[in-house]
Amino acid sequence: MVANPTMVFPHHGAEKAAATSGKLLAVENVNLEYRTRERIVRATHDVSFDVYGGDRFVLLGPSGCGKSTLLKAVAGFIEPRAGSISLDGERVRGPGADRIVVFQEFDQLPPWKTVVQNVAFPLRVAKKLSKAEAHQRALHYLDKVGLAAFANAYPHTLSGGMKQRVAIARALAMQPRVLLMDEPFAALDALTRRKMQEELLRLWEEVNFTLLFVTHSIEEALIVGNRVLLLSPHPGRVRAELNSHQYSRDSFGRADFQRSVARIHHLLFDQTDAVQ
Ligand SMILES: Nc1ncnc2c1ncn2[C@@H]1O[C@H](COP(=O)(O)OP(=O)(O)O)[C@@H](O)[C@H]1O
Ligand SMILES: [Mg+2]
């Protein structure tokens, strides 16, 4: 059963319209499964959602509910057992440069390339840019994430937060239709994580991309997202869709924010009977 979105947050139609344009990504009735020799594991069941241009759409649910699997399916690494995933009206049939993923791990940057080479490399390969063009664009996006001064550094000399910034710059430089992020800040310490959430919002305002973001943190979902899809525990089903654009980093500790966190916690964990 899907809870009414207005149940938790009021719908601010005008604000939403300002932040969005046409439908970009359509996920319809998607079942995702893993087949091992012994058994079939259903990761998600009948999941549907739409992402609009300019959205910061968050998939929120407990560990094991199929968030990463959903993101991998959108990225084109996994094919749905049932249902469909379309981008700009075209069925997703495999990976593509129009969907770039930023992962949680700090080791997603080849260590033998400098920071700027890491960002420029996929531009040369997938975007067919010349060496000079790729270098230029890489520097532009490194500047956006505040790392212009570290262009010639090697990844192992950077902190975890800086490595994630490089991964974000590399992804944004590709100018994907949708930027996919799978718990990108989950391995960072609490203060750095807060700072990265803030920077991501600033980047979104500056660069204007569409984001599909996965997290199991309710607070992070409310702060990063403008819309949040709540997924039930394993196998993931849609529990509710909420508007959350009224929250920012300044919301931490505020009474209405804490009330929303508590209500979402209740929706996610205290109503298992409602999912049947
Ligand atoms: N490669 C795999 N083979 C079999 N089962 C898997 C595999 N990857 C994930 N799963 C299972 O699928 C379910 C969803 O996993 P996942 O998408 O990683 O969840 P989340 O990202 O929400 O924590 C879990 O039950 C997990 O154990
Ligand atoms: Mg995951």
TrEMBL record:
Transmembrane segments: none annotated. Belongs to the ABC transporter superfamily. The keyword RNA-binding does not apply. The keyword Secreted does not apply. This is ABC transporter ATP-binding protein. Pfam families: ABC_tran. It comes from the Bacteria. GO terms for molecular function: ATP binding; ATP hydrolysis activity. Residues 27-258 form the ABC transporter domain. SMART domains: AAA. InterPro entries: AAA+_ATPase, ABC_transporter-like_ATP-bd, ABC_transporter-like_CS, ABC_transporter_ATP-bind, P-loop_NTPase. PROSITE patterns: ABC_TRANSPORTER_1, ABC_TRANSPORTER_2. Keywords: ATP-binding, Cell inner membrane, Cell membrane, Membrane, Nucleotide-binding, Transport.
